[in-house]
Amino acid sequence: YADMGISPHVYTGAEFQWHPAKHHALHSLFRDVPPHEECAEWLSCAYESVINLGVLYFTQTYFAFGSHLGDRAIIMYIADVVSIRRVPGMLTTSLVLTTKLSTHEFMSFRDVDYADKLIHYCVENQEKPLVPRDVLSVMYPDANAAFHTHFDLPAHELLAAQFMCEIDTFETRVYVTKSFLC
Questions:
Q1: What pTM did the predictor assign?
Q2: Beta-carbon contacts of residue 70 (< 8 Å; ≥ 6 apart)
Q3: Which residue has the higher pLDDT, 53 or 158?
Q4: Nearest-CA neighbor of 62 among 76, 49, 50, 72?
């Protein structure tokens, strides 16, 4: 977008971004995850202890955590998750996922509210494909309505992404649909 005078801000965690490198990392770390499972989202977090930092990957049917140090690798089939609960701690709020066989505690999320909403969305909507638009609807549930109040576009044009940017010296938000950049 540089030729249009648009310079995107650094990723703030509030916008979905496709990460082909994370998709590759997911399949390199987790050989049991089928190749057709795409990395729809990933979040930095810790598992069981703030010392055990890593990445929680989201696919259509799996949650997978891989630690940065050591060999900690956890794969959870989303259909096996029976409960999700928030546990406030002294330093950070944890998300505890209980499956049919075990319990997993994740903490140190950059945005625990977003992580909680996204995990709940995945568990509650397993039959629906997890795509960037779904991730966006978790973060901004009223985004399509707000988007359509600003722009006179056909109703079938759904918001696919939005991000903050700077045009010349003016800070604004850019909205992306399948056919339009607004």
A1: 0.65
A2: 52
A3: 53
A4: 76
